[in-house]
Design a protein that fits this description.
596 residues; alpha+beta; 8-stranded antiparallel beta sheet; 21% helix
Length: 596
């Protein structure tokens, strides 16, 4: 039986197509916030990293009311590295809004999330956003979206999707370009009329699948998901169906329903709604809460397996413990195990060394976000170079292969094609749209992309756009050349001097500025030749009582290249680490005992 008082929808889109801005407008115009409340921009991107990077990293949900109908809205990440969040989000909803930029059209991450939605046979509404852009090409974008649906094997019902046009920044939606709409009311009505309510009943067996976890210092662990069937009552006992066993006679300490961005405490919860419960410990994503007497668990959430692994080591550098708050192996493994509880696409395992842990995930971006989050929380550790996870199929080694989508000025096509070919990339498409830019598609092993992004940005002078999407596992492609240049390595502890830095001008590019403290074995720059070079970066000028005319003239020092965490992870080789602390990011050799 369909519940007509509830709609559960997800908004899926490529990075920076206006998804979170549209949610802001829906919240504002639904009356969820009172007139005197100031609505923060991109209110659904609540994390610092999300605001800084301008992307959605974790899936979140909010709820609004429109004409007595509750609309639960799930804001999903647009990047394939956070696909675990996407897959969980789609388990909560009965339809999706596909948001597409009126100029850029459907881009790679749109393809990834849409593919997941179509596989679940979810109905789709196409939202063409940013219709006020001067370079909008609405008709072409609509046709490109139809082509994408056909390419993804959409069924006849899915491909007959309705289209609505929006300017999310101004809070306007319209069925046809040129309509005199002044608000998002056409979109609200389309959501209510096109999407059906959840097919469920309050009289059935209670089944609540856990799709997300949160923590509250007052009530402890909070489980979030959709109540697929039955009701939950604060006064009754229920069972927890885990992967290995069924635990009976459990009671809740609190039940919550969502309104806006807040959780409202209630005594009962109805089926079909997206809810949260507290009071049950040792609960995991994928578990089911069901009837106490006759429990019926739902199918556990299926998540794509990791394709990249890294090793997290306890920091053992000479500067260890100076800047971090959590520095021991116990601190490190506890934090990683806590992350796994709420991030199902991450796997953590111990190694034969007590101070080294292997972390497996979806991609370099996901790993970089985890490392940066831990760094800001006060953790200090070392991270190795990302490596791809291989599989043995029919007696031969297979490795992950990705599709790469590139948008660059046409004068860089030759250079980019050459470098991707060296990394075993195979071009599958080349389109020159006649506006001075070309769109390229490649099929390339994931190994070939590690460390390529920095080189790509340098070669295209910052004007290139590159997106990747996991394709499949294919037979091992053979050796792939990685970084060809060596590094400059400090030969002693001390402080970087301007005098020594000047001597490095013709030897490479420095990563450190004068006054920086370094230690033996720390990487201080990139050499402009093959092989590593051990240097004395702390050398001081010997002072005398004599002066020579012109010898003390000011000599300009080339600025140091200060790299971000993402750039450091891409730069290092197999025998190097990124040392991460709350205050610093350093590069070092795995063996600090370098030979001078």
């Amino acid at each position: 039986m369909s519940k007509e008082n509830i709609r559960n929808i997800a908004i899926i889109a490529h990075v920076d197509h206006g998804k979170t801005t549209l949610v802001d407008g829906l919240l504002q115009q639904s009356g969820t916030f009172s007139d005197h409340q100031v609505l923060e921009d991109r209110v659904m991107d609540s994390g610092d990293l999300e605001k800084e990077r301008g992307i959605t990293i974790t899936s979140k949900n909010t709820a609004i009311n429109y004409e007595e109908i509750k609309i639960n809205i799930v804001d999903t990440p647009g990047h394939a590295d956070f696909g675990g969040e996407v897959e969980r989000s789609l388990n909560l909803v009965d339809g999706v809004l596909l948001l597409v930029d009126s100029s850029e059209g459907p881009l790679p991450q749109t393809r990834f999330v849409l593919k997941k939605a179509l596989e679940k046979r979810l109905p789709v509404v196409l939202v063409i956003n940013k219709i006020d852009k001067p370079d909008a090409r609405i008709d072409e974008v609509v046709q490109e979206t139809y082509d994408l649906f056909i390419d993804l094997d959409a069924n006849d019902e899915q491909i007959e999707f309705p289209i609505i046009y929006t300017n999310a920044k101004d809070g306007i939606a319209m069925h046809n370009i040129g309509d005199d709409s002044l608000n998002l009311d056409p979109l609200f009505k389309l959501i209510v009329e096109y999407f059906e309510g959840p097919d469920t009943s309050d009289n059935g067996t209670t089944q609540f699948l856990i799709t997300n976890l949160a923590y509250d210092p007052y009530v402890g662990q909070i489980a979030i998901g959709r109540l697929d069937s039955g009701v939950l009552d604060i006064s009754k006992q229920y069972s927890l169906c885990t992967e290995d066993e069924i635990v009976n006679n459990l009671k809740f300490s609190a039940l919550y329903t969502f309104k806006g961005l807040e959780k409202n405490k209630v005594d009962t919860l109805e089926s079909g709604d997206i809810i949260a419960v507290a009071g049950i410990e040792n609960i995991n994503i994928g578990d089911t809460i069901s009837d106490n007497e006759n429990p019926e668990p739902l199918n556990r959430i299926s998540i794509d397996q990791p394709t990249v692994s890294m090793f997290f080591n306890v920091n053992n550098s000479p500067f260890a413990g100076r800047e971090g708050k959590f520095v021991t192996s116990r601190n490190l493994i506890e934090r990683l195990e806590k992350e796994v509880l709420s991030n199902v696409s991450l796997h953590v395992s111990k190694t034969d060394k007590t101070d080294v842990f292997e972390v497996k995930g979806r991609g370099e971006l996901q790993m970089a976000v985890l490392i940066e989050t831990m760094r800001r929380e006060g953790y200090e550790f070392m991270a190795s170079r990302p490596e791809v996870i291989t599989k043995e199929i029919d007696g031969s080694i297979h490795e992950p292969v990705e599709n790469v989508y590139i948008d660059i000025p046409e004068e860089f096509v030759g250079t980019v094609t050459k470098n991707l070919s060296i990394r075993k990339g195979k071009m599958t498409s080349l389109v020159n749209n006649g506006f001075g830019r070309a769109t390229l598609e490649f099929e390339i092993p994931s190994r070939g992309l590690i460390g390529f992004r920095n080189q790509f940005l340098t070669e295209t002078r910052g004007s290139g756009i590159m997106n990747t999407l996991f394709d499949s596992y294919k037979e091992w492609f053979g050796d792939i050349p990685q970084r060809t240049s060596g590094v400059l390595v400090a030969d002693r502890d001390g402080k970087v001097t301007t005098y020594a830095s000047l001597a490095m001008v013709d030897r490479g590019v420095l990563f450190v500025t004068p006054g920086t403290m370094v230690y033996k074995g720390m990487i201080v720059g990139e050499r402009n030749n093959e092989g590593d070079l051990v240097v004395n970066i702390t050398k001081e000028k010997k002072l005398t009582n004599h002066r020579a005319s012109g010898s003390d003239d000011t000599v300009p020092l080339r600025p140091a290249q200060l790299m971000s965490l993402d750039q450091c992870l891409e730069f290092i080789s197999d025998d190097e680490y990124v040392e991460v602390t709350p205050e610093s990011i350093r590069l070092r050799k795995s063996n600090l005992d370098v030979k001078t």
